[in-house]
């Protein structure tokens, strides 16, 4: 989520403000929300931020090494990335993360869904949405989609019947 989530959250906050305008005497008939506009502006904003962060790292003489790495058995702290070894007193490995999607054989229809990453790739606001899970990201996405006009449902798994 990060910055992308914040931008979408603020879009939902503005939608709530517009919804309440009439209670404060403002007449705002026919206000429409354009998903594509916020997506394009959000993506451009994130691209600019990433460029700023990378430039700041370069100015601070930080080397960014992209690739698959592993710690070695060397006596000094050493990481091997794509066959090249790097040794330093302090090593930061920013792994990122990828959600796991179960196979259709395990959960029929799982391949038809999208992950929270896919939420940020949506080209249009879905008319209806089902969010599976009850973590803070799931609840936040359900709230954003619902506020912006998608008829949303939140599915929560229960391990036991009470």
TrEMBL record:
Keyword terms, alphabetized: Disulfide bond, Oxidoreductase, Redox-active center
An annotated GO cellular component: mitochondrion
Keyword Signal attached: no
Domain of life of the source: Eukaryota
GO BP: cell redox homeostasis; cellular response to oxidative stress; glutathione metabolic process
All copies of domain FAD/NAD(P)-binding, residue ranges: 36-161
TM region positions: none
Family: Belongs to the class-I pyridine nucleotide-disulfide oxidoreductase family.
Name of the featured protein: GSHR protein
Taxon lineage: Eukaryota, Metazoa, Chordata, Craniata, Vertebrata
Gene from which the chain derives: Gsr
């Amino acid at each position: 989520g990060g910055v992308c989530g914040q931008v979408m959250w603020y879009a939902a906050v503005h939608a709530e403000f517009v919804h309440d305008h009439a209670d404060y005497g403002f007449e705002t008939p026919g206000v429409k929300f354009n998903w594509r506009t916020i997506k394009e502006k959000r993506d451009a904003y994130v691209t600019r931020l990433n460029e700023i962060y990378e430039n700041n790292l370069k100015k601070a003489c930080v080397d960014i090494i992209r690739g698959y790495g592993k710690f070695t058995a060397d006596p000094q702290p050493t990481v091997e990335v794509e066959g090249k070894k790097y040794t330093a007193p302090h090593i930061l490995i920013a792994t990122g993360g990828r959600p796991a999607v179960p196979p259709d054989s395990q959960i029929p229809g799982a391949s038809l869904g999208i992950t929270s990453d896919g939420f940020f790739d949506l080209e249009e606001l879905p008319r209806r949405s089902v969010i599976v899970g009850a973590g803070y990201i799931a609840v936040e996405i359900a709230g954003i989609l619902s506020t912006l006009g998608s008829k949303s449902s939140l599915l929560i798994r229960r391990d036991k019947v009470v």
